[in-house]
Amino acid sequence: MTKMNHRRPRVPLLKARVRLGFGMSRYLVPALVMTALLGAGCGGDEVKASRSPRSMLEAKRTAADRNRDGNEAPVIESVSLVPARPAPGRIVHASAAVSDADGDAVELQFEWRTSVGRILGTGRSLNTTGFSGGERLELTVRATDGLDESEAFKEQFRLSEALPQIALVAIGADAGSKPGAVLEAVVETTEEDQGDYGVLYEWRVSDRVVGRDDEFHTTALLPGDVVTLHAQLDFSDSRTDLVRSQPIVIGRVVPPTIISKPEVGVEGGMFRYLVRATSAESGAKLKYKLLEGPDGMTVDAGSGVMSWRPSSEQRGAFSVEVAAQDQWGSGVAQSFEVRVAPPAPPASAR
What we know:
With 350 residues, the protein is mostly beta strands.
């Protein structure tokens, strides 16, 4: 009986000869073949659902082209400047009226140039400091909705003459410089006629702002206070630098005068004296103060009435000094003596 050997037939493996460096070569089973076989056994669903990155980019680009084909670019209807013809040194602001048929959000781009094309800046505003009157400038405005850009809108304008400047700032003191006087602001400009601007005032005492009108009442000031005036021109969109006047020193006022004569005696056990004072200064307000006197003596600050009732121990001569003072610190004093006689001796018995 013949013995037969049952052997599984060999499946020939696909080999690829790969040449390595240094003269060495090996055979490798290609992974691509195995992958292809496995994929064929799974029905190919994954292969059909996948898309290469390149094809995805092409799809996006195609969609963008379709959107762009149906979009309308925005249109700039008009451009406005404020002020319409600015003077050198002022800031000019730009605005634009834009329409977009698709209702898209629109972004504006502003570019300022000289007449020879030199770029001065971008944005809605331009500071014209450093330019000369009569110089021509140009503004270019564009609008974009993210897909399309409008046609450039160009607006040319000419700068007017230079802005007026402050030539002089001074303090008018025709009414004097004592406390209570009214000081006046004197401001002269390089332009004779009042233009389209205002004047701002700052009255300062020791660098503290105490007033902002064209007149300043010095009633609250004291002799020796130093007053300065600062002024600047105010335009609709800019202001000139502050210009300072020469300082003025508030002078001392004429001190008040006491015109009453003092009482020197005590009648009926009581001392009374009405102090009367006057001042040559307009608006002076006087107050009275007892500087020296015996215990119990008083003076009313407003009326100047002095009163004193001596005690039984207060006998002899007493020095008294009373003062009248205005609100600016100027004053005058009056000194005198008050005599209190000793009690009469009792009558002798007979």
